[in-house]
């Protein structure tokens, strides 16, 4: 049985009177994110078009796709517009990955100069190729190297620039790995980070099994025991519904949540979580017409950034994710998989989202009234 959770930022009259929310804003350095739910860095997904769509539905802070330090240093000004933040995206964070303190510093300085509001260091990526090059999740097994990077970056960034970490619960499930986790966390706090995102799986697990939210709760309790209630802990892993998001906030005591796979193709999740945190009814699922509008806008933003030719294959992966909300998801998914051009994209929308009989019908109603079509 879970112990009742009584951390000071959980449901209090003062919080409701001040913010209208069940939970306090997420504070990262001088930033205060009113709804404590952010978009995580998602390799291959969290580009500017996705981030802008997320903001339309209430996402108050987003991270760009994780970027390799060497890439950030080398990318030309002309091409950087494809990867860096746009002027209407603040507040916005950049997530860095690498293995050498010197390169991390050079990359972090460039990102700060480019106008990012926060730098996040990725010590969590579980991809085999990344681990083999001593990047990402590999650093969970090497506290000295990890802390050398944190120290170098913190010393060379402006004092006002927030610095955070992305960690997993360990490299594996061994007691030694748990010890190394807290060595990295405590050492990084001493060096000046202002927050940490913790994914509740080990590096070895990748995305298998369930995210361990008991461990994430333990991290918050650990910081409170160290008299560091100011240190933001952001929980991550298996956040696919608004109800689960609110439950995880309440049970774990974290300061915020990082939504990742749950918002690829479902930006409405931000709106739903925001409503529940304000004690409002959960919004109805988006109608197919509403989905069509978002799919159209998402493709337009992608074509604006990359050009139509590149946008079509880029959006194909998003279409597959969006299809999960459709009552005929498997057929819609197959059609999105075949998309090669903007015309193909529009044909899928015309076929599956714009039929007159579906207007103003929610997904739930369609399924109930038509037996799934």
List the topology elements.
Layout: H1 13-19, E1 26-28, E2 31-33, E3 37-39, H2 48-56, E4 62-63, E5 67-68, H3 69-74, H4 77-80, E6 92-97, H5 101-113, E7 118-122, H6 128-132, H7 143-156, E8 163-168, H8 175-191, E9 195-199, H9 213-225, E10 232-236, H10 242-252, E11 256-259, H11 268-277, H12 288-306, H13 308-322, H14 329-337, H15 342-352, H16 363-370
Parallel strand pairs: 3-11, 4-6, 5-6, 6-7, 7-8, 8-9, 9-10, 10-11
Antiparallel strand pairs: 1-2
Helix pairs in contact: 2-12, 5-7, 7-8, 10-11, 12-13, 12-15, 13-14
Give an overview in words.
- The protein folds into two domains: 265 residues, Alpha-Beta Barrel (TIM Barrel); 83 residues, Non-ribosomal Peptide Synthetase Peptidyl Carrier Protein, Chain A.
- The relative contact order is 0.11.
- It is of the alpha/beta class and 373 residues long.
- The protein has 16 helices and eleven strands.
- The termini are far apart.
- Strands 3, 4, 5, 6, 7, 8, 9, 10 and 11 form a nine-stranded parallel beta sheet that branches. It has a two-stranded antiparallel ribbon with strand order 1-2.
- The chain is globular, with a radius of gyration of 21 Å.
- α2 packs antiparallel against α12 and α7 packs parallel to α8.
């Amino acid at each position: 049985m879970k112990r009742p959770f009584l951390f000071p930022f959980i449901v209090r009259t003062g919080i409701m009177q001040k913010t209208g929310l069940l939970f306090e804003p997420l504070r990262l350095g001088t930033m205060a994110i009113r709804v404590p739910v952010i978009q995580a860095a998602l390799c291959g997904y969290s580009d500017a078009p996705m981030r802008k769509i997320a903001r339309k539905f209430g996402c108050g802070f987003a991270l760009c796709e994780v970027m390799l330090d060497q890439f950030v240093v080398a990318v030309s000004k002309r091409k950087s517009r494809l990867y860096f933040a746009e002027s209407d995206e603040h507040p916005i964070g950049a997530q860095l990955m690498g293995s050498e303190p010197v390169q991390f510093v050079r990359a972090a300085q460039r990102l700060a100069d480019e106008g990012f509001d926060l730098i996040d260091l990725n010590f969590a990526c579980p991809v085999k190729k990344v681990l083999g090059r001593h990047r990402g999740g590999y650093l969970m097994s090497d506290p000295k190297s990890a802390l050398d990077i944190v120290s170098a970056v913190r010393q060379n960034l402006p004092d006002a620039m927030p610095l955070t970490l992305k960690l997993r619960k360990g490299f594996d499930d061994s007691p030694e790995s748990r010890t190394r986790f807290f060595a990295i966390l405590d050492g990084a706090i001493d060096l000046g980070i202002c927050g940490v995102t913790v994914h509740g799986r080990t590096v070895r697990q990748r995305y298998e099994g369930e995210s361990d939210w008991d461990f994430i709760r333990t991290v918050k309790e650990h910081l409170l025991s160290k008299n560091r209630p100011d240190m933001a802990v952001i929980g991550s892993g298996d956040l696919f519904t608004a109800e689960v998001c609110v439950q995880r906030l309440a049970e774990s005591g974290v300061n915020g949540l990082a939504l990742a796979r749950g918002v690829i193709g479902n930006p409405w999740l931000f709106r739903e979580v925001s409503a529940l945190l304000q004690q409002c009814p959960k919004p109805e699922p988006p109608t197919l017409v509403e989905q069509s509008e978002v799919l159209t806008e998402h493709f337009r933003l992608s074509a604006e950034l990359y050009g139509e030719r590149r946008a079509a294959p880029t959006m194909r992966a998003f279409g597959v994710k969006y299809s999960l909300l459709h009552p005929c998801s498997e057929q819609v998914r197959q059609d999105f998989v075949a998309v090669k051009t903007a015309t193909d994209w529009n044909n899928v929308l015309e076929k599956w989202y714009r039929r007159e009989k579906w207007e103003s019908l929610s997904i739930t109603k369609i399924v109930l009234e038509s037996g799934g079509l």
